[in-house]
Design a protein that fits this description.
The complex is a heterodimer. Chain A is mainly α. Chain A has helices at residues 2-13, 20-42, 48-58, 61-66, 80-108, 113-144, 182-201, 207-210, 213-219, 228-251, 260-269, 271-278, 295-337; strands at 222-224, 286-288. In chain A, helix 11 runs antiparallel to helix 13 (295-337). The chains are: A mainly alpha, B alpha+beta. At the A-B interface, helix 2 of A face helix 2, helix 3 and strand 3 of B.
């Protein structure tokens, strides 16, 4: 039958080349036997319409051929949990690295708002490329699985060698839900007071911060710019604010609950002193104290410090976004649970 | 309404296929205690109430053979070359174990209902 020949030819095109002749010979024998049976039953050859209906119910050639493939998936259920875990990890970390690197690069070049928009618009491509690379790597692992029996199962999240004692303690990584003891809250407040006192004393007794290095620093022909004073008082203010918050919680009996809001607010406030330094006139954070100062060293130090500040601000901004995202997810979960 | 019926039908179809998948292997192994080629095997299974599409059965035979559960040979019958399959010795052992498992599941489900 011509239609059957055409059908088998179409199936053959999609079969693995090493086995296609063998598979087609078997398929032909089976289908011809079936056709013979049908025609014997009818007592006549199939009409054109009947033949067409019969061939159609056999299935589309590409789908029939696909059933003969040894592997019909890119990443199987055995490997998928590891793949998804790696994909998630890479998504978070690669995004953080990408954003920091690009923001610092753009800021260092003093580019316009368009350049920052370009960073955001570049993100989907970045995710796509990362996802494609990881998927490709895992597809190759899956493909080589039958050639490396037993090896794939050794990948960390699938490792059968784990023991229940390896499990993290309850509440680890979820500080918000873990009750905070009174002793810990009290210790935190006391150490907070000591730290605050130390902070206030540092300008008068620099050796409290630098130790013996203070005399070496004093001998250098460089000094800190005036902008460090508002930076310092800003740090003092933030620490004082946090300390007051902790003491208020302690005296109000609210020490058990660790507040995500406080954590978040502190991150947000920490942007202010960093911003003060970043906005230093002429990016001058260090100045020459005497004629012995090396102009190039001074310029390098100021440039290096400026870049470091931009990285710090980018990191803090990402942390804020991360916490905001976590809070949003938590709020959504609570709403769904309710 | 129509939309939710389609969703329910799809869900049922997916679950039905999932349920059938393992049973098909068992049925094929059971039937291949006697030698068959693809088409007669399909007919024999259909006569016993186990209808299987060609596009499912023929590749399944290849897979079971690659796994060492079946053996096959090309032979001429009625002036046509056909590939005959039968259970291998490994296949017999695996089939016996699968059958035990099947009976245990069947008993459990019967007890549950």
């Amino acid at each position: 039958m011509e239609l059957l020949d055409r059908y088998l030819q179409a199936v053959k095109k999609h079969l693995p080349w090493q086995r296609q002749d063998d598979i087609i010979a078997e398929l032909r024998a089976n289908l011809e036997a079936q056709l013979e049976d049908k025609e014997t039953e009818l007592g006549r050859p199939l009409t054109k319409e009947e033949a067409e209906a019969w061939i159609k119910q056999l299935g589309a050639p590409i789908q029939v051929a696909a059933r003969y493939q040894r592997q019909q998936y890119l990443i199987g259920p055995g490997l998928f949990p590891t793949y998804f875990y790696v994909l998630k990890l890479t998504f978070y970390w690669a995004t953080a690295v990408y954003l920091i690197a690009r923001v610092v690069n753009v800021a260092a070049q003093g580019s316009s708002l368009n350049a920052y928009a370009g960073i955001v618009f570049g993100l989907p491509w970045f995710w796509l490329i990362n996802g494609a690379i990881i998927t490709l790597v895992f597809a190759l692992i899956e493909l080589s699985g039958p050639r490396l029996p037993g090896k794939i199962a050794q990948l960390p999240p699938l490792n059968p060698g784990w023991t229940p004692m390896d499990l993290p303690p309850v509440g680890a990584g979820d500080g918000e839900k873990k009750p905070w003891s009174f002793a810990k809250a009290l210790a935190e407040a006391i150490f907070g007071c000591f730290f605050f006192a130390w902070l206030l004393l540092v300008p008068h007794y620099p050796y409290l911060m630098f130790g013996p290095g203070e005399w070496y620093l004093a001998s250098l022909p460089y000094k800190l710019a005036q902008v460090w004073w508002p930076f310092y008082w800003c740090i003092v203010g933030i620490n004082g604010f946090e300390l007051m918050w902790k003491i208020a919680d302690l005296s109000g009996g609210a020490w058990q609950k660790r507040r995500m809001w406080r954590h978040w607010a502190m991150h947000f406030l920490s942007l202010i002193p960093l911003g003060i330094l970043l906005a230093a006139p002429g990016q001058q954070l260090f100045l020459a104290k005497s004629a012995a100062a090396n102009v190039k060293t001074l310029a390098d130090a100021n440039r290096g410090m400026h870049t470091a500040l931009m990285i710090a601000i980018a990191v803090v901004a990402l942390q804020i976004v991360w916490h905001a995202g976590k809070m949003a997810v938590e709020a959504y979960r609570k709403r769904v649970a309710a | 309404m129509g939309y939710s019926m389609t969703l329910t039908d799809n869900l049922f179809e997916n679950l039905r296929l999932e349920l059938r998948r393992g049973c098909l292997t068992l049925a094929v192994l059971a039937q291949l205690k006697q030698e068959h080629y693809g088409y007669t095997l399909r007919k024999a299974l259909a006569e016993r109430g186990m209808e299987i599409e060609e596009s499912t059965l023929y590749p399944l035979l290849r897979r079971l053979e690659a796994q060492g559960l079946l053996t096959s040979e090309w032979r001429e019958e009625e002036k046509r070359n056909k590939r005959f399959y039968r259970l291998s010795s490994d296949g017999e052992q695996i089939f016996a174990r699968l059958l035990e498992e099947w009976n245990a599941i069947n008993t459990s489900i019967t007890n549950l209902l």
